[in-house]
Write a structure and sequence with these properties.
Keywords: Membrane, Plasmid, Transmembrane, Transmembrane helix. It is a single chain. This protein is mainly α. The chain has one domain. Helices cover 81% and strands 0% of the residues. It is built from 12 helices and no strands. The radius of gyration is 22 Å and the shape is globular.
Length: 254
Amino acid sequence: MENLKVRTEDIDDLAKFTRFSFADLLRQISQLRWLIWAITVIALCTVGSVLTAVFLPGSRAVLLGEDGIIETGGAVCLASVVLLAGSAAIVSGPRAAFLLGGLFGLVELMDETSFGARILGFQPPALYGGGELDGVHDLLILAYRLLGDLSPSLGWALIGLILAVSLGSLLFALRVVWNTRIDARWPRLSNHVLIFLHVGLIGVAQVVDVATTSRTFSAVEELLEFNAAVLLLFYVAQQVVETTRRSRSGRSRP
């Protein structure tokens, strides 16, 4: 009987833990609406790009190549991030989310524009092992090559480390999304899911860039970087809207 009682209590606890009413669903959607919007945009752009590349092979270079539509779109998103984060910091005061988002956006924008070389027209320095040092990702390539010269296993260890951090960031974001619906302590973290997803995607993109050389993987890298830029833009926009809402709510109180 005692065992039966324990099992009954366990079942009751499990039922309370996993109960998910329609009201809970609406509340979760409200909390994660920015994530839903970002994923919708990413899905539409990714599916559209893949279908275009498959059925219109002649458009691949224009769409997914160097300085193509996808890369340019990513640069526009990053420039928007920098402007939005900077403006919000001036208007609302410096906040960690604005500074973090703006810093990510600025670094990645400089990477996309080859540290300004594509805009100003100067020649980037040569990169050890071939190529040019025209982006932040080239620093990872440089580290990979130097470590590889010491020992091939060290180079692959660097790749493994970047991949582990990236996948860990993605998995943590998924855990936050899942736990938001069953634990009241997680909604605060749910406001930062997009930045964890951004870190994960941009990390995977760097792994693809450093460890592969094929055109197919190069196109995958461009899509990953574009998707990461979209996530970052939605993250900064979310923080601006939430900060403005809290500020107005505070002023409206007597």
